[in-house]
Amino acid sequence: MTSLTASARRQQHPGALALGAARIGYEVRAYFRQPDSVFFTFLFPVLLLTIFATAFAEQEFGRDADGEVVTAAAYYLPSMLAAGILLSGLQNLAIDIAVERGDGTLKRLAGTPLPVVSYFIGKLGQVLVTGATQAVLVIGVAAIAFRVPLPTTPEAWLTVLWVFLLGVLTSAVLGIALSRVPRSGKSATAVVIPIVLVLQFVSGVYLQFSLLPEWLQSIANVFPVAWAAHGMRAALLPDTLAVLEQGEAWNLPGVALVSGAWLVGGLVLCLLTFRWIRKDG
Amino acid sequence: MDNHQSVVRVHELVKRYGERAVVDGASFEIARGETFALLGPNGAGKSTTIEILEGYRDRTSGVAEVLGTDPGKGSLDWKRRLGIVLQSSGETGNATVREQLRHFARFYPAPRDVDEVIAAVGLEAQAGQLIRKLSGGQRRRVDVALGIIGRPELLFLDEPTTGFDPEARRRFWDLIRSLKAEGTSILLTTHYLDEAAQLADRAGVIAGGSIVAIGAVHELGGAEAWTPAVRWREEGRMHEHRTTTPGAVVAALQSRLGVEPQGLEIVRPTLEDVYLQLIGAAEPTTAPDAATDREVRS
Question: So where does this one cross the membrane (chain A) (predicted)?
Answer without folding.
Answer: 38-57, 77-99, 127-150, 156-178, 190-209, 254-277
